[in-house]
Amino acid sequence: MTAGLHQGLCSALPLAAGLLLAVGLLLHSPTPLAGNQLYEPLAADVRIALRSAIAERKPPRHAFDNPLQAADWLSAMSQRLERRLPDIATRLDFLRSLHYEASRAGLDPQLVLSLIEVESGFQRYAVSSAGARGLMQVMPFWADLIGDGNVRLLFDMRSNLRFGCVILRHYLDLERGDLFRALGRYNGSLGKPDYPDLVLATLRNKWQLTQAHDTSTTRRETNRN
Length: 225
Known about the structure:
The chain has helices spanning 3-27, 44-55, 67-81, 88-104, 109-119, 141-145, 157-174, 179-187, 194-207, 211-224. The protein is built from ten helices and no strands. Helix 7 (157-174) crosses helix 8 and helix 8 (179-187) crosses helix 9 (194-207). The protein is globular and about 40 Å long. The termini are far apart. With 225 residues, the chain is mainly alpha-helical.
């Protein structure tokens, strides 16, 4: 190998490494299908109901039926979330808040975890190209429509969970319980299968509690009683 060729290859290596890194970041982006909710005028009664749901006082610690259920669920979900949120105190605070907000809105907490993984990759300060913000990628217009107009609250963990869960519940009601269509609305891709399919696959493959886990929980509760 000539000195000139060797020098040329060496100088090209950093560029090639940079290109590979960029491709890797694109392929592993935590928000591959993060979209945006579309603005739609709300009937006065719907807007009042949603505004009331957002404005309710901050939640208690959790919405579990009993301490055993809380410990069981938090342990299972915490293990799966450890890579995303390494600090255990932050992780447990997030999970308690999420469980409360999802349960309060009549949503499956594991579904909300799946949606957050697809939307933001659990990045609290994520902002999409469309301007959606926070963990559940809430569009800023919602702050004016059903909030107090403070867009910065969408980066607050509890506020973002509150908005996201209330909005998803609204879309579920609008679609008469059709989760597939409600997820499409949430992502601004109604009628397209990619986003709902990905959220539901994430739920099945990562966040859904296994039958063995449920059976174990039931057996411990039976023995306790």
